[in-house]
Amino acid sequence: MQFVIVRPDGAAVSDAAPQMPEAGFVWCDCVYEDGRAWAEPVQRLTGTGVFDDHLRDAENPNHPSYFDSTNDYEMIVFRGLAFRTDTVDPTEVIRVRTRPAVFFVFPRVLVTVRAPDSRLVPAIRDRLLAGSARARLPALPEELMLRILNGMVDRYLDLRQPLSEQFERRQRELLDPRRPYRDWYGLLEARREARRLQDLCEEQLDALQEWRDERLERTEGAASAARGLHALNDALLVRISDIVGHIHRVLSHARRLESSVESAVQLHFSATAYRTNEIMRTLTAITAVFLPLTLITGVFGMNFEFIPGLHSRSGFWWALGAMALIGVLLFAFLRARAMLSASDPFGRRRRRRARRTQAPAGPGDAQS
């Protein structure tokens, strides 16, 4: 647990609870292992105690993104990614693992409860301590909270590329006519993770929009001035809109991925059904060609002495020639009626035939 005193002229860090500065605010940065140790120092700074239900919510690792408020403070639970997006393997199912970061917003105090291995919050703290030469110091606790939230959402934006590569690879495998697709469980898991990402984005949107709407309603009344809550100025509203826009982009991307993989599955089954129909049509045509020939051989295989040509030296060859002629005529008839065709659901042979028959471009065409 660390305290960062953010003043207009700079920031300083302290391991012990500091005094409230005349200008600026105090940021109390905690990790899960600190438990409720931050509650008493924050109560001395703000004169406000945190409800026990909210403390239990801050200790719950499975709590969804959520917003709640009292007459003295506000609480926002925001779930961020629990893994590095630059180390994921697109060839495997990407598990969207998340963990909560809890924010308690007081008029001049911000409390963050996060995972101990988070890299975003220490990076923001280091930028604050480096001074305004590298980053503009936040003037309000709400502004610092929105900076952290923006960094958390940007990590979801970085997740779009490996997710796209994963779904594109599965689409290519689905539509490959040379090999049957067998990894249906992996495809179901990938689709489930895309749906889970959508649910996470919707929860985040609900939490942020509820916080913005309630803060706007409270700052419009006279009661907010008595409580000391800061009004949402234009800069904060722009930053909130930017974060909401980024979440909408992640949500739209997850929906497009789910829709594209569903379309690929439907196309896969349509192509499979088309190939099956082509095979059945070919087998039916072959059966139609050989049925009359089977009938002729069956007739000449009967044990009757009066069958014409049975004792003739040329009878076998006449029967064989008649069978060949009937087979050729039936084959030509079925071919003319388009009942015999090569199975090519993706039109590769037609495209190759079109490229072979296409005339090369002349000099005039190349210049144009």
Overview of the structural elements:
- By secondary structure, this protein is α+β, with helices and mostly antiparallel strands.
- The chain has a single domain, classed as Beta Polymerase, domain 2, CATH 3.30.460.20.
- 56% of the residues lie in helices and 12% in strands.
- A seven-stranded mixed sheet has the order 2-1-3-7-6-5-4, with helices on both faces.
- A hairpin with a 4-residue loop joins strand 4 and strand 5.
- Helix 4 runs parallel beside helix 8, helix 5 runs parallel beside helix 8 and helix 8 runs antiparallel to helix 9.
- The relative contact order is 0.08.
Task: Summarize this structure as a short list of keywords or feature phrases.
single chain; 368 residues; alpha+beta; Beta Polymerase, domain 2; seven-stranded mixed β-sheet
Would you summarize the structure shown here?
With 368 residues, the protein is of the alpha+beta class. 56% of the residues lie in helices and 12% in strands.
